[in-house]
Amino acid sequence: MAVTLCVVFILVASVHSSDGNLSFASYYGDHMVLQKSPERAVLWGYGPEGTQVTVHLSGPMNQESLVVNVTNGTWYATLHPVEAGGPYNVTASNENSTATLTDVLFGDVWLCGGQSNMCFETYKIFNASEELALAAKYPHVRPFMVAEEMSKTELSDLIKVELPWSVPTAANVGRFSAVCWLFGRYMNEHLKYPIGLVQSCWGGTPIEDWSSSRALQKCGLQQNGPQASSGLWNSMIHPLLNMTIKGAIWYQGESNTNYNQDKYSCSFPAMIDDWRMAFHEGSGGQTADDFPFGFVQLSTYIKGSTLDGMPNIRWHQTADFGFVPNLRMQKTFMAVALDLPDEYSPYHPIHPRDKQDVASRLTLGAKAVAYNETNVPFQGPFPNKITSTSMYLNITYDQTVSVTPSAGIFEICCSVTEDPCGPTSHWVAVPIMQWDSTTVRVSANSCPLPYEVAALRYAWRDWPCDFKACPIYSTSGILPAPPFIINRYEGDVWECQ
Fold first, then answer.
1. Distance (Å, rounded) from C-alpha 217 to C-alpha 44?
2. What is the pTM of this model?
C-alpha cells in the first residue's frame, strides 16, 4: 500500500509541471472540478521567486489571461466566474515552464469530512455491486481524496494525496467515501451539472482534531486531545482553505461520546463557524462566509445499551435545540440516522451499511438549505407545543405525522423540583395512547406522588428502534422524528391544563 501511495503522489506532482520550475498545489489536477459561478475559482501553485505567471483558461468559454506574481515562492490567481460545464484546460506558464490541467470541469465543490462513517467505503455498503456498476455513468461527479496525515503546525499544502482528481470508475469509487459519493451522485442527478467531491476524513477521530486552536479556545478546550488537538485541521483542512467550495457535509461524533461529550454542543458549532470564516478568508472571499454545512446525526452503536453517550451527542449535534437550522446553527441541514441500525454489519454495528438513505436525507437538506429550493421537506417532525394534565401529555408536532404504536420510546421525568431533568434523573417509559394527524398523546400518570412530570424525551437511547421502525415519521414516512428532551419549566413549549 505504501508503494501505491508513493506512486500516486509522484504522478500527481509530475502532471503539475513540465520541468519542476512551475507547478500547481497538490490538490489541483487533471479531471478536477472547480467552483462554478457566481463564485470565482481560486488557483495557486509554486514558481521561481519574483517571476510572473500567466494563467489561461481554454474551453467552451474562453477568458482573458491573468498575469500574477510569484511571492515567497507561490502564486495565486482568481479566475473570472465560469458557468457550469467543460471540459477546460487550465494553463499556468512563465518564460521557462508550463503546467497544464486538462479535462477540468466547473460545477459545485463539496468537502466531505468526519470520522469512520464518512470514510466508510462504497464497496462495503448494501447493494454495493449495483452502485459500483453505475459509477462510470456519472462522469461529471469527480472524486478527490486527501491522505491521512497529521501535523503539529498549520500547513499551506497537503502532505500527500490518496486519490487524485479522477473520472469515476468502479475501482476508485469503491474505495471512496460512500456518503460523499452518493451525495454527489444524487446532487448531480438533480442539478444536471458537475459535482466535485473532496474527501478529508479519518476514522476514530474526535472533533478536537478537526478544529483550529481558535475554535477550541472558544469552548475552553485545551490542545490535549487523543491525537493532539488540531492535528488534522493543520494537515487535512487548513491546506484546502484557498479552494473555493460550495459547502461541506460531515459525519462525526462517535469518538466524542466518551471524550469532551459535554463540550460538543459548543465545539461542533464553533468548528462550523471557524471553517466558514477560514474558507471565506482563504479563498479571498469567494467561498461564502456562511457556506451550507450538512451533517449526519449519529446512527446507533450497541443494541440494548442504557448509556447516554450516543443520545447526548445527537442532542449536542444540534447545539441542544433538537433541530437545524436554528439560531446557533444557521444554514445547516441534518440527516437523522437513528432509525438505520445494522445489527449484523460485518464492519461492526457502529458502521451501518445503509448509506443510501443517509445520503438521500442529506440531499433533501441540501436542496432546501444550500440551493434554496422551496417546498422540499427535509426535517422530521418536531414538537412545537406540549399540553399536560395529570393523566396525559399531548404532543403537537410542526407537521403532519405518521405514527405507529410504541410502549416505551417516550419517557417522562418524575421530579419534585423545577430543576431541568438530565440523564441521571428518574425517567419512566410511557406508552403512546392515541394520535391524530399532528398530535400524539402519551400517558402521564406514572409518577407517584409527590412527584410530577417535569420533562419529556423521545428516542433517548443508543438504539431506539429497529430499521426504519421508529414510531414517529413525516407523513410521507421518509423522515424520522429526531430525538428531543423538553423540560416543563424551560421555554414556552409546555402548557399545563
1. 31
2. 0.94
